[in-house]
Design goal:
This protein is an alpha/beta fold. Helix content is 33%, strand content 22%. The protein has 7 helices and 8 strands; from the N terminus they run H-H-E-H-H-E-E-E-H-E-E-E-E-H-H. The longest helix is centred in the C-terminal third of the chain and has 22 residues, at 227-248. It is elongated, with a radius of gyration of 22 Å.
């Protein structure tokens, strides 16, 4: 058909050297539906971040994952990042959290920020098992997140980037709050896994920010620009396209 030949000519302009043998006309309308579903599911507009709460003096991941609640300063930080939402019946992006039976907690934090949907896996809001020292359910979620935010409580707290043992955490952001004269400010540090290139926007020479929308926007921008988010998307999309090729061409 002439329309097919026209599209073929366009593709040859985009990919020089490609031959007619590489083309096959697919008449099944389901392919269009599947491609649209793939775009929706793998959109870069959806992100999930882990948030781990650490009390003053804690240095081991088991201690941090066993914290059942956070401090008022931690709650203030969460409220800055997003809004608290009930999970049961939630119809928007949930980042793998259960929205039917509260199996992954009753609430979490979410933000519709600019054109992005962001869900947070908050350690203290995921189910706590009193008879389990490692809290594997909590670690399962945060351990699979590309970027993890660690909130340090207490003035003397420190955090080592290798505290959480995970193959999937590529960026760790360490945040500590400081209050003075009813004003909260945050000190922010980023650590990258070996092999992850540096990414912007750059932190100021003194990485301390006053609580507010300006800090939130900088913080979320820095967090979602971690290169591994887009590397993972590229690998996943390649696998999905290969599956479609097997379904409709092979």
């Amino acid at each position: 058909p002439s329309l097919f030949r026209s599209k073929t000519r366009i593709l040859k302009l985009v990919v020089p050297g490609i031959t007619n043998k590489a083309f096959k006309l697919i008449k099944d309308n389901q392919l269009v539906i599947d491609l649209l579903k793939m775009e929706e599911a793998e959109s870069t507009e959806k992100f999930k971040f882990g948030i781990l709460y650490s009390k003053e003096g804690q240095t081991k991941e088991e201690e941090m994952f066993c914290n059942e609640t956070g401090s008022p300063a931690f709650q203030e930080f969460l409220s800055l990042l997003g809004e608290k939402i009930p999970l049961k019946g939630w119809e928007r992006f949930a980042g793998g959290l259960d929205t039917s039976n509260n199996r992954t907690g009753t609430h979490t934090y979410y933000n519709q920020w600019n054109d992005y949907e962001i869900i947070f896996h908050v350690s203290t809001m995921l189910p706590y098992q009193s008879d389990e020292s490692q809290q594997l359910e909590r670690k399962r979620h945060l351990g699979n997140d590309i970027a993890v935010i660690v909130f340090l409580d207490g003035k003397s707290s420190v955090y080592s980037p290798d505290t959480i043992r995970s193959h999937f955490n590529h960026v760790v952001c360490v945040v500590s709050a400081h209050s003075k004269k009813n004003t909260t400010s945050y000190k922010v540090q980023f650590a990258r896994k070996e092999g992850v290139p540096n990414f912007g926007p750059p932190l100021p020479e003194i990485p301390i920010f006053e609580n507010g929308v300006e800090f939130r926007d900088f913080f979320l921008t820095k967090s979602y620009r971690a290169p591994e988010f887009f590397s993972k998307l590229k690998r996943t999309r390649s696998d999905l396209l290969h599956l479609l090729e097997q379904t409709y061409i092979a």
